[in-house]
User: Fold this.
Amino acid sequence: MGEFELIDRFFKRPVQRNALGVGDDCALLAPAQGMQLAVSCDMLVEGRHFFPDVNPFTLGHKALAVNLSDLAACGARPLAFTLALALPRADAAWLEPFSRGLLALADAHGCELVGGDTTRGPRTICITVFGEVPAGQALLRSGARAGDDLWVSGTLGDARIALEVLRGTLQAPAAVFDAARVRLEQPTPRVGLGQALRGLATAAIDVSDGLLGDLGHILRQSGVGATVETVLAMELIAYGGHSTGAAGQLSAEVQLECVLAGGDDYELAFTAPAAQRAAVQAAAAEAGTRVTRIGRIEAEPGLRLVDAQGAPLQRRYASFDHFA
Amino acid sequence: MGEFELIDRFFKRPVQRNALGVGDDCALLAPAQGMQLAVSCDMLVEGRHFFPDVNPFTLGHKALAVNLSDLAACGARPLAFTLALALPRADAAWLEPFSRGLLALADAHGCELVGGDTTRGPRTICITVFGEVPAGQALLRSGARAGDDLWVSGTLGDARIALEVLRGTLQAPAAVFDAARVRLEQPTPRVGLGQALRGLATAAIDVSDGLLGDLGHILRQSGVGATVETVLAMELIAYGGHSTGAAGQLSAEVQLECVLAGGDDYELAFTAPAAQRAAVQAAAAEAGTRVTRIGRIEAEPGLRLVDAQGAPLQRRYASFDHFA
Assistant:
């Protein structure tokens, strides 16, 4: 199977929004009038971001999901994406489920594959995604203000629990692992919530490297600090949204670490004025996504963790850094 | 050096056109009214597209140049790009010249780095580039008509000669090799010519996999055929534009093969009505790029090569296919 047959067979679809199909030198896109184009780019490398034996269908899903999550964090509506793919060989048994998982998520969000590149090399997936957002209305990292509530969508830590079980460093009941694994391998980008938060949230980011690290970007870029209540944060762990009553199998310390610094969650962390608390809950309900208030933004720089009694926790959590 | 220091140190620049700098979840772009956004994406893999010991400065140049060449083939003006970079380690001695070569070419074309991703992995560079083109005026592959002239910009084959010398399969005088190597490692995207050809060329493509193979895309997508005169095509070889008189060192057969199927040229192959011959020459002169007429488009499908006497050549040339 050659390069062009590979593209035709697995990635060519009827043209929708894009002025050209896959296969000219460039794709052509025209955002509607008054819209800005939001652009984000992520690269996934075998052995680093996914195991060599991961299910190709879920990998296709995840490769696009992590990019859609960036659009969600900007409040943008998905439009289109490009895919660059390096593969050791043109392997139909891998490409078929990979493209199916990728395009199923793309179709669910009306996000069209408009171009890309295929080449031989160590298995690497690079997706650049395009969304549109009304000019001036994108959610940024820089808008958090003292007094704002600090919110997180969905659940945190499940992906890390699944990863540690796969690595053999943690044990969990089968039901917990199965649910957590879905969260690791098929994260749900909060695309609807991101759009619903336009005009409400003052700042937003998607949680990919761990909550505290990603929250740090909001704090630095907004010039503020925050206090996170660990009791509230612990409400974020739910083993894929299914409460199993098996929490006792993992120590509270491990659970808290997975929530605060787990990574690979693809939830939204965002800030909104306390006066908008009901509006945030209403927007989340409309988007069908649970949101949890875990703390508040403060003028004093830095990130503080406090326990149920309001006493500070000293423990430090590392954020994921690809070169640390 | 961590991931964020790496980005700050080598890739962060003052924000220009982009609504946001590098470092939010998405970059925001707004093409001017009446403009379409042209998007292209290329991935370069170490050992496949470049030698591990290649000069990082020229690699930075080439990584962007091959993408700008796709914009040129659409007649688009460069606006911005994203960069995803996998590296075995955060190596300042490599990153410094790489980013310098990359950003020098970006600056020369007013093309702003607006986002990206960095990760640990086998050295891989994925760039997605954005340009703008007036709605409906993009040069496509599908517009060639019987009777059109077939043109090629600049020179062809030099890059392949340099590659074969580096591989040890070909010998060439030092002056020839030095000039050819510049063409291999620092190709010149024909960005000005592409824009000058809007409204003149009926179809265009950039020559990256070899002239005959890339020309085949125009023919298939336009539903036409072509005859190429090998005597005219031989005018395209020039060892980097410097005639050395050393052509005798390489057989005519090798030279013709490098011209017709060399690859890595990043010249434009395009078609235009014969009545526009003078206008094409004038546009090329204005863009400062030589163009050579090498044949004509015909209604009969297929690609025919003829010698000086108009007799058909039977030889077949393979186009570069990453999975063949």
In short: Chain B is about 35% helix and 25% strand.
